[in-house]
Amino acid sequence: MIINHNVSALIAKRALQNTSRDMDKSMERLSTGMRLNRPGDDAPGFAVSEKLRSQIRGLGQAERNAQDGLSFLQVTEGSLEQVNSILQRLRELSVQSSNGIYSNDDRNLVQLEVSQLVEEVDRIGKTAEFNSIRPLDGRFSRASKNPMSFQVGGNAGERIDVYINTMSGSSLKISGGTDRLTLSTPDKASGSLKVLDEAITKVNRLRSDLGAYYNRLDLTMKSLSNNYVNLVSSESQVRDADMAMEMVEYSRNQILTKSGVAMLAQANVRPESVVKLLTDRY
């Protein structure tokens, strides 16, 4: 029996300290719902989790970018719909003026409407706007080699380029110089039908392109949403705590803490037997 070193008390104290640390971790995990609260909990898992978080946030923003792209395309297509309606009206007037029964005064009255409609096509092409961006003025045409780009991924280079041709009156060849649309004679009115048919075809081709871009972005959004959910699930598997298992560990550590305290008390009582031995001897 010795009194200078209470080894039993030191062992009990060490075990109690270890149990207390484990219990603190269990309480932290139960209170936060996360298995990884700091890199020291699982260094490789923490690194993987942070990478997944970066991808998750990137995909979330990419999905919002795709939605903005859809809005942009909707506004642009809406402007083209108005242009197409105007071109259809111009064609109707051309067919009407191709009839020889109208006098020059009648044709001048028709020409007034034609001129106004042509100016409106030109105005829409130059001023149609989305967030201060004018999509129909030619800045995003293939000739300019400067497409409208939508970032639809969490990594560099994951984007969709959209090309939009110029849709002004001059590009449709219904205004400006010798291409000016005039219905002053039946022959000119009949000749304007070919110009208008080409303009309508050009507008419809661009609308079809925008429709294809729209469908692609819509599918991209669905893919991004699916990937987002899968990555969140993967990050949850790495980072979130299994509450049932943590509760089991907490209960276990709680019992060990109580027994550790009891054993530490017993270890501190043991040296009193030496005092009793000395008392009995003397």
Automatic annotation (TrEMBL):
Main localisation: periplasm
Pfam families in alphabetical order: Flagellin_C (PF00700), Flagellin_N (PF00669)
Keywords: Bacterial flagellum, Cell projection, Cilium, Flagellum, Periplasm
Source superkingdom: Bacteria
InterPro entries recorded: Flagellin, Flagellin_C, Flagellin_C_sub2, Flagellin_N
Domain Flagellin C-terminal: 193-278
GO cellular component terms attached to this protein's record: periplasmic flagellum
Gene3D superfamilies: f41 fragment of flagellin, N-terminal domain, Flagellar export chaperone, C-terminal domain
Domain Flagellin N-terminal: 3-139
GO molecular function: structural molecule activity
Record's subcellular location: Periplasmic flagellum; Periplasm
PANTHER family tied to this protein: FLAGELLIN (PTHR42792:SF2)
Function: Component of the core of the flagella.
Family: Belongs to the bacterial flagellin family.
Name of the protein this chain belongs to: Flagellin
